[in-house]
Amino acid sequence: MKALKGSDVKKIDLLCQEKYKIPTLLLMEHSGLKVVEEIQHYPGHTKFTVIVGKGNNGGDGLVVARLLHLKGFSVKVFLTEENLQGDAKINLEIVKSLPIPLFRDLPSLDRILEETDVIIDGLFGVGFKGTIGGIAKEIVQKINSSGKYVLCIDIPSGLAGDGPMENREIVKGDKTVTLGLPKENLLLSKGRVYAGELVVKDIGIPPELINQYKTDTYWLTEDIVKKLLPKRSQDSHKGSYGTGIIVGGSKGMSGAVILAAHAALRAGIGLLYTLVDRELVNTIETSSYESITLEMEEDLEKFKPILVNYLAKAQSLLIGPGFSTNNREELFIYILNNFPGKIIIDGDGLNLLAKIQDYSLIRENHILTPHPKEMSRIIGLTVEEILKDSINIVREYSKKYRCTIVLKGSTTCIGTKNGEVFLNTTGNNGLATGGSGDVLGGIILGLLAQGLSVEEGAQLGVYLHGLAADIIAEEKGYFSLLPRDLPEALALAFKKLY
Ligand SMILES: NC(=O)C1=CN([C@@H]2O[C@H](COP(=O)(O)OP(=O)(O)OC[C@H]3O[C@@H](n4cnc5c(N)ncnc54)[C@H](O)[C@@H]3O)[C@@H](O)[C@H]2O)[C@@H](O)CC1
Ligand SMILES: Nc1ncnc2c1ncn2[C@@H]1O[C@H](COP(=O)(O)OP(=O)(O)O)[C@@H](O)[C@H]1O
Ligand SMILES: [K+]
C-alpha cells in the first residue's frame, strides 16, 4: 500500500477536484462518515467530545459531531478558533444550526472531558507544521491527561505527516483513523506509539487516482509480498532452489550461525553451506543436520584458493552473524570483493564495515541489515537522530551506497538503491531477544538463493520474519518467544501467504 507525505494530501485533493470533479466537501463528508463507522465498534460509549482546530481536520471533526448527533449520541464540540475557512466553515455553520453545544473557553475543557467517554481529536491534521504552542499545547496536555479513550482523525495532532518527528506535545491516541492512505510517520515506530491502533479508511478517492499517483514510500502489505514468493514446482531438485553460504560464528557465538542456518533451510533453500572457524565445526555439525560445514583457515593467503572454490558454489552469501571483528578485516574484504552473487551483511559484518570505513566495498546486490546502533556506527548520526527521521535517512543512504538497507526495529525500514522505502509492521515485542536478527539474515539468504533480487528478498524476508513471530504470539503470547522458534513457524507464515 502506498504511504503519503503531508504534501501528497493537498496534491490528491487537487487531483480529485480537477480531474475527477469531486469537491473537497464530499471528501470531508466521507471522512466524517468513516470515522463514525469506526466509533460504532465501541458499544457503551455514548458521550463524545470533538476537539475542532482551524483547518480541514477540524472540518472533518465537525462532520463527525453532526453525524453522531444525528444518531442520537450526546456530542459536545470544543472550538479552538471561531474563524474557520472553506469546507470547515460550511460544516461549522451546519453544526451551529443544530442543538450541539459549542465551547470555546479553555477552563471549560476540563469539565467537558471529565463528562465524556470518547475524545475525538480534530485539532490538527497533516497541515500541522513547526512546533505546538499556546492554547493548542494546553489542549493536547489536557487530552493526554484525561485518561479517556482518544480517537484521532487522520493523524494524532502535533505529529508531522512525514519528516523529522520532534519531541513535543503530541496527542496520544488509542486509535487513529487515517483517511485515504496512511501517512508515512504513522507507520514508524515512534509514530505508532502516538497513533495507537491504525485503521486506514477509503474516503472515496478514485482507485484510478491512487493507482496512478506516484509515491516513493510503501507500507508492506500482504498484496505486495505475495507477489514476491518464490515458485516451487513438482519437477525440481535441490539444485532448483539455489545454494547459499553463511560466513560467521566465533568462540562463544556459534548460535548465531545455527539460527541463521535453520532459518535459511526453512525458507526453502536448496543447499546450504556454513563457513566457520575450526573450533566451531563440531558444534555446527551436531546442531544443523541439513547444512554442510566448511572450515575456515587462519592463514588467508593459503586459504584463498580453497575459499574461491567455496564461493563459486553459491548464489547468495550471509556474512556477519556472530563473526566477531577481531582480525577478520582481510577475510571480510576478500569475500566482499570476490563473491559476485548477492550478499547480506549483518551483525559483525556491519561492524567491520564501520571499522574499515570503506563503503566502496558495497555493491548493488548487497543488503545491509543494521539495527539503529549499527546504522549509527556506519553513518555517524546518533540513534536518536536516526529514529526521528528513519524513512528519509534510509532513503538517503541506500541511494548513496546504491544498495538495499534494512533498518531493523519495531517498524523495519527497507531502502532500495532507487530511493524507494518499504515499511514493515509485522512482528511484535517477542522478537526483542538476541538472535532474532540472525534468523532474519538466514531467511533473506534462503530467499535470495531461490532467485529473488535483493530488493525482493529483503521485503519478503522481513515480512515473513515478523509474520512468523505474530503467528507464534497469537497462540503463545509474547514473553517466551525465542528466535529458535521462528524458523519452524516460517512454515505457517509461508502457508498464510501462498
Ligand atoms: N485528501 C484527504 O486526505 C482529505 C483530508 N482532509 C483533512 O484535511 C486535513 C488537512 O487539512 P489542512 O491542510 O487544513 O490542515 P490541518 O487541519 O492540519 O490544519 C492546519 C491548520 O493549522 C494551522 N497550523 C499549522 N501548524 C500550526 C502550528 N504549529 N500551530 C498552530 N497552528 C498551526 C495551519 O495554518 C492551518 O490553518 C487532513 O489531515 C484531513 O483531516 C479531509 O477534510 C478531506 C480529504
Ligand atoms: N518490538 C519489536 N517489534 C517488532 N520487531 C522487533 C521488535 N524488536 C525487535 N524486532 C525485530 O527483531 C530483529 C532483531 O534484530 P537485531 O537487533 O539484529 O538483534 P539480534 O541481536 O538478535 O541479531 C529485527 O528484525 C527487528 O526488526
Ligand atoms: K487529528
TrEMBL record:
Known NCBIfam families for this protein?
yjeF_cterm, yjeF_nterm
- The residue ranges of the YjeF N-terminal domain are 9-211
**Binding positions for (6S)-NADPHX?**
56-60, 125-131, 154, 256, 322, 371, 438
What EC number(s) has UniProt assigned to this enzyme?
4.2.1.136, 5.1.99.6
Q: Name one GO biological process term.
A: nicotinamide nucleotide metabolic process
Keywords on record: ATP-binding, Isomerase, Lyase, Metal-binding, Multifunctional enzyme, NAD, NADP, Nucleotide-binding, Potassium
A GO term for molecular function: metal ion binding
Q: Which residues bind K(+)?
A: 57, 121, 157
User: How is the cofactor bound here?
Assistant: Binds 1 potassium ion per subunit.
Name the cofactor(s) required for activity, per the record: K(+); Mg(2+)
* Residues engaged in binding AMP: 408-412, 437
* Summary of subunit composition and partner proteins: Homotetramer.
Which residue intervals define the domain YjeF C-terminal in the entry? 221-497
Its function, per the record, reads: Catalyzes the epimerization of the S- and R-forms of NAD(P)HX, a damaged form of NAD(P)H that is a result of enzymatic or heat-dependent hydration. This is a prerequisite for the S-specific NAD(P)H-hydrate dehydratase to allow the repair of both epimers of NAD(P)HX.
Source organism:
Anaerobranca gottschalkii DSM 13577
The name this protein carries in UniProt is: Bifunctional NAD(P)H-hydrate repair enzyme
Pfam families recorded? Carb_kinase, YjeF_N
Family, per the entry? Answer: In the N-terminal section; belongs to the NnrE/AIBP family. Belongs to the NnrE/AIBP family.
Task: Note the HAMAP family from the entry.
Answer: NADHX_dehydratase, NADHX_epimerase
**Top-down, what is the taxonomic lineage of the species of origin?**
Bacteria, Bacillati, Bacillota, Clostridia, Eubacteriales
Q: Which reaction does it catalyse?
A: (6R)-NADPHX = (6S)-NADPHX; (6R)-NADHX = (6S)-NADHX; (6S)-NADPHX + ADP = AMP + phosphate + NADPH + H(+); (6S)-NADHX + ADP = AMP + phosphate + NADH + H(+)
